[in-house]
């Protein structure tokens, strides 16, 4: 888990936000109406768009080139041929469905403590917005046993085994993608200790639920943000994720059965001197409940991330060097302004 456990710790200290009992709500409460924030309204420019992020097959010999191109142009792509077993992906979704289907009093037993990273609750970024999101989440950092036992004192084992297996497989896939990307950055993966022995990296698995919404065009599933990661890998059977693309606006990413969605996060943005773009994204809701699982990967907390310098990535650094821990702290305090605060 590591440094990511510290994300948004400070912003949560004074507020413990509790998700609604969504099943009992028939009309959208005022506290959840986002329409008045016109340019950020969930359905402004909501389209599948004439263009959408590329779909890349990892088995394609040309995959490395296509991945680099996607990191530059979109900061996001869909990946097939990734080797994560379909059955495991389905099990993650059905375990998430079981968890979020528990009665609200039961779920609240695993509520994240104020300033805590793991457990049940609203999105960590909630304190930065004056409206609530139509969302509930369960964050896993390291072993899921502690919080899962509070949900199912006897029957937590199946859930835990599925999530641990998934975390291990996603970590390995992320490291495979990092090696491809590092090659293009001229970084020798063999010389990167935390990648070589797969020790110390910070990871988190976030299960997201977007309950069936009585008034979807006025609600926000997950507000616009970029991920505090090097790379995030997301799975969801159902569409709902929108990414912001300069010139095209908010674009819906159509879910492809069996594919995962790979996002460039803030640390890869800094490392590539802004050439690979950390993608701003958000989630829209519908009358039908949607689940997703996002796996976040960052280097260990004490690693210093500095922009690489070269002909392709620029000879002048656009960002100051930051420690992973330091940047996570800045993001937790300043959220969307964090990247511009470390701009040179
Ligand atoms: C690893 C992390 C990234 C994250 C904060 C966290 O510590 C655990 C949850 C992650 C998540 C998931 C939903 C969206 C998001 C912005 C949030 O509120 O919590 C991300 C955080 C992030 O990427 O900054
Ligand atoms: O649910 C989704 O599609 C996106 C989730 C997300 O952005 C996140 O967990 O950071
Ligand atoms: Fe995200």
Automatic annotation (TrEMBL):
Pfam families: 2OG-FeII_Oxy (PF03171), DIOX_N (PF14226). It comes from the Eukaryota. The keyword Transmembrane does not apply. The keyword Iron applies. Keywords: Iron, Metal-binding, Oxidoreductase. InterPro entries: DIOX_N (IPR026992), IPNS-like_FE2OG_OXY (IPR044861), IPNS-like_sf (IPR027443), Iron_ascorbate_oxido_reductase (IPR050231), Oxoglu/Fe-dep_dioxygenase_dom (IPR005123). Residues 201-299 form the Fe2OG dioxygenase domain. Transmembrane segments: none annotated. Belongs to the iron/ascorbate-dependent oxidoreductase family. This is Gibberellin 3-beta-dioxygenase 1-like. It comes from Prunus mume (Japanese apricot). The gene is LOC103320029.
């Amino acid at each position: 888990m590591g440094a990511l456990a510290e994300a948004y710790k400070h912003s949560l200290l004074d507020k413990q936000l509790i998700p609604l009992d969504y099943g009992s709500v028939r009309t959208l409460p005022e506290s959840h109406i986002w329409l008045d924030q016109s340019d950020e309204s969930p359905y402004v420019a909501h389209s599948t768009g004439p263009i959408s992020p590329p779909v890349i097959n990892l088995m394609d010999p040309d995959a490395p080139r296509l991945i680099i191109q996607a990191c530059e142009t979109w900061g996001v792509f869909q990946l097939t041929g990734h080797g994560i077993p379909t059955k495991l992906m389905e099990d993650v979704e059905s375990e998430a469905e079981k968890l979020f289907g528990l009665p609200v009093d039961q779920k609240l037993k695993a509520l994240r403590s104020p300033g805590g990273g793991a457990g049940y609750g609203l999105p960590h970024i909630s304190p930065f917005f004056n409206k609530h999101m139509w969302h509930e989440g369960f964050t896993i950092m390291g072993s899921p046993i502690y919080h899962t036992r509070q949900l199912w004192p006897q029957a937590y084992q199946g859930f835990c085994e599925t999530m641990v297996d998934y975390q291990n497989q996603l970590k390995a896939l992320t490291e495979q993608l990092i090696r491809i990307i590092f090659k293009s950055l001229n970084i020798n993966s063999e010389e990167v200790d935390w990648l070589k022995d797969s020790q110390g990296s910070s990871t988190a698995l976030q299960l997201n639920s977007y309950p069936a919404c009585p008034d979807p065009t006025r609600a926000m599933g997950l507000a616009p943000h970029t991920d505090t990661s090097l790379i995030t890998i997301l799975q969801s059977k159902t569409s709902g994720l929108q990414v912001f693309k300069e010139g095209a606006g908010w674009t819906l990413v159509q879910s492809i059965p069996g594919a995962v969605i790979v996002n460039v996060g803030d640390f890869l943005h800094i490392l590539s001197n802004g050439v690979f773009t950390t993608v701003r994204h958000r989630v829209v809701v519908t009358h039908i409940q949607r689940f997703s699982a996002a796996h976040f990967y960052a280097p260990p907390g004490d690693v210093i991330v500095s922009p690489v310098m070269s002909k392709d990535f620029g000879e002048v650094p656009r960002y100051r060097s930051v420690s992973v821990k330091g940047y996570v702290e800045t993001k937790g305090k300043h959220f969307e302004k964090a990247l511009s605060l470390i701009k040179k």
